[in-house]
């Protein structure tokens, strides 16, 4: 890693912040406390903007949204004890969503830590299950520690790394004046003569029913064009996880859309996958899939895993594994295969038609129609985030994504109240893009304070609220188990009034004309808009 001398007197916090900036970090999110005031000052001086959130878990997910759009690690800042404890759910979300989050928490100074108990907990122990590593920053090694944390966070599978920083250390004059810059990156380039490429080309040549299952790593590695070329050349249908939607244009005849949480979709897709005689798992991480995908084929020799990530699951056991960047391998593979016809029984086309029928819109108003109208309004260039709940499963199945990483969600951890902070982080990272946050009433009530964050950052977000006065997904699970509903009914909050109270625009709608008009009007506002779409939760019956 390159190092650069800082000649003027620098605090430890300054070296830390400049090293973060050198590695591409541009945004920090959090709630300040006395233990991190020096750090926040150093971040601002280094060109890393600190954004105030209303809750630390939301701040972590904001950083995740910004990281997904920027392609760089981003930063969560918390104070000691309760600040970090508040953030645990958001950090766990980044762990299972594979986000290279850097978490810096204030900690009580070392000389008082052993005998002082106020707000003191073991931060590293608290976070051990949900971070890749945890370190305490020391004056003599600050730049090296930060660079190490960034290297660990960005190694596949990506994830959060935690740093403790005490006030005295942050404010101390740094004995070392170097900022460590990232090394120049030169990935290995595969060629048609590589054994792995020859192996795959031969497997494809002899396969009659090849299928591609693509995941988040493939989307982040920008493997889309190479994957599209391969799929069309060999006639392989493409199935993705929810977070990889759009890596293959979903209006293409070979696209089978996303999979992961819908039992109705699984009834169509799992038999097709089981009928395949070759499944190329490209950057695929089964953390997004429901139990039906635990062992989705009986013959492991059908499965070829193409990923740089170290496997940390036992959800399938591939017969072959190629540890390489998916984009690089697919580009080389395209030079080694020839055009051919596959699936002579047209089974993928039949499956696609069946899926289209299952998720078709049958009523003029309700969750299906809301998704249709939003899709038409958003277009291909907007970014949409969606919260956990029944609406997320339906939207993820109906939504036709044209570009990768244009539909953001918590699909591995499936935490509630992710859509709004994801949207905030994404729009902070790219203010030029129109962003929609799709939420349920339960999710919004869980993190409604972040409407103040949207207001204070002057973000023109459009929040589309599916207001069915129910935790509908849980109610459906209770019903499927033969149980009466319990703890799933919500009162009718006037979210339009709440939005106005937070300084935004709020409106309640109950039909397609009102919704369409409000979507168009929201695009012209400088501030945020909240459109509460009211319907009965029974509209989800049999929907997915």
Please outline the helices and strands:
Layout: E1 2-5, H1 12-22, E2 27-30, H2 37-46, E3 49-52, H3 56-70, E4 74-78, H4 82-86, H5 88-96, E5 101-106, H6 110-113, H7 123-127, E6 133-136, H8 142-154, E7 161-165, H9 167-171, E8 178-181, H10 195-206, E9 210-214, H11 216-220, H12 224-234, E10 238-241, E11 255-259, H13 263-275, E12 278-282, E13 303-306, E14 320-322, H14 326-334, H15 347-358, H16 367-378, E15 383-386, H17 390-398, E16 407-409, H18 419-429, E17 435-440, H19 441-446, H20 450-456, E18 462-467, H21 472-480, H22 495-501, E19 505-509, H23 512-522, E20 529-534
Parallel strand pairs: 2-3, 2-4, 4-5, 5-7, 6-7, 9-10, 9-12, 10-11, 12-13, 13-14, 15-16, 15-17, 17-18, 18-20, 19-20
Antiparallel strand pairs: 1-8
InterPro entries: DHS-like_NAD/FAD-binding_dom (IPR029035), THDP-binding (IPR029061), Thiamin_PyroP_enz_cen_dom (IPR012000), Thiamin_PyroP_enz_TPP-bd_dom (IPR012001), TPP-bd_CS (IPR000399), TPP_enz (IPR045229), TPP_enzyme_TPP-bd (IPR011766)
Domain Thiamine pyrophosphate enzyme central: 199-333
Domain Thiamine pyrophosphate enzyme N-terminal TPP-binding: 11-124
What this model shows, in words?
The chain has 544 residues and is an alpha/beta fold. The chain folds into 3 domains: 2-181, Thiamin diphosphate (ThDP)-binding fold, Pyr/PP domains (Rossmann fold, 3-Layer(aba) Sandwich); 195-350, Rossmann fold (3-Layer(aba) Sandwich); 359-540, Thiamin diphosphate (ThDP)-binding fold, Pyr/PP domains (Rossmann fold, 3-Layer(aba) Sandwich), CATH 3.40.50.970. 39% of the residues lie in helices and 17% in strands. The strands form 4 sheets. A 6-stranded parallel β-sheet has the order 3-2-4-5-7-6, sandwiched between helices. It has a 6-stranded parallel β-sheet with strand order 11-10-9-12-13-14, sandwiched between helices. Helix 2 links the parallel strand 2 and strand 3. Helix 1 runs parallel beside helix 8 and helix 16 crosses helix 17 (390-398). The N and C termini lie far apart (50 Å). The relative contact order is 0.11. Residues 3-7 have low confidence and may be disordered.
């Amino acid at each position: 890693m390159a190092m650069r001398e800082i000649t003027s007197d620098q605090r430890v916090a300054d070296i830390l912040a400049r090293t973060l900036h050198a590695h591409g970090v541009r945004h920090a999110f959090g709630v300040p406390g006395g233990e991190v005031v020096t750090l926040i000052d150093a971040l601002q001086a280094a060109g890393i903007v600190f954004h105030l959130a209303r809750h630390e878990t939301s701040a972590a997910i904001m950083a995740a949204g910004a990281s997904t759009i920027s392609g760089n690690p981003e930063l969560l800042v918390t104070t000691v004890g309760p600040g970090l404890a508040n953030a645990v759910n958001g950090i766990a979300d980044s762990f299972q969503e594979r986000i290279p989050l850097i978490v810096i928490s204030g900690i009580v100074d070392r000389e008082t830590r052993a005998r002082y108990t106020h707000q003191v907990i073991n931060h590293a122990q608290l976070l051990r299950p949900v971070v890749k590593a945890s370190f305490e920053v020391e004056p003599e090694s600050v730049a090296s520690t930060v660079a190490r944390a960034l290297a660990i966070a960005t190694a596949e599978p990506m994830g959060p790394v935690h740093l403790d920083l005490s006030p005295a250390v942050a404010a101390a004059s740094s004995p070392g004046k170097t900022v460590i810059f990232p090394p120049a990156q030169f990935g290995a380039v595969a060629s048609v003569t590589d054994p792995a490429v020859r192996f795959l080309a031969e497997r494809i040549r002899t396969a009659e029913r090849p299928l591609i299952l693509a995941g988040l790593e493939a989307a982040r590695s920008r493997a889309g064009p190479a994957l599209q070329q391969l799929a069309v050349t060999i006639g392989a249908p493409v199935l993705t996880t929810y977070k990889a939607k759009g890596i293959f244009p979903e209006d293409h005849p070979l696209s089978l859309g996303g999979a992961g949480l819908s039992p109705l979709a699984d009834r169509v897709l799992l038999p097709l996958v089981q009928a395949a005689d070759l499944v190329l798992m490209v950057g695929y991480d089964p953390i997004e899939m429901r139990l039906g995908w635990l062992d989705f084929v009986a013959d492991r020799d059908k499965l070829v895993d193409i990923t740089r990530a170290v496997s940390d699951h036992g959800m399938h056991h591939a017969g072959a594994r190629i540890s390489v960047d998916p984009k690089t391998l697919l580009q080389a593979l395209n030079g080694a295969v020839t055009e051919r016809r596959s699936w002579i029984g047209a089974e993928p086309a039949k499956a696609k038609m069946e899926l289209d029928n299952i998720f078709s819109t049958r009523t003029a108003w309700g969750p299906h129609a809301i998704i249709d109208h939003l899709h038409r309004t958003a277009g291909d260039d907007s970014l949409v985030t969606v919260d956990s709940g029944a609406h997320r499963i339906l939207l993820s199945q109906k939504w036709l994504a044209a570009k990768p990483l244009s539909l953001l969600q918590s699909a591995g951890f499936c935490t509630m109240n992710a859509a709004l902070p994801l949207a905030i982080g994404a729009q902070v990272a790219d203010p030029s893009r129109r962003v929609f946050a799709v939420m349920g009433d339960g999710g919004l009530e869980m993190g409604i304070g972040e409407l103040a964050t949207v207001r204070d950052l002057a973000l023109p977000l459009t929040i589309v609220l599916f207001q069915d006065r129910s935790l509908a997904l849980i109610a459906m699970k209770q019903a499927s188990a033969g149980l009466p509903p319990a703890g799933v009914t919500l009162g009718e909050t006037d979210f339009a009034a709440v939005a106005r109270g937070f300084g935004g625009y709020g409106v309640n709608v109950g039909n397609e004309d009102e919704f369409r008009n409000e979507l168009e009007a929201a695009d012209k506002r400088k501030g945020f808009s909240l459109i509460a779409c009211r319907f009965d939760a029974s509209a989800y019956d049999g929907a997915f």
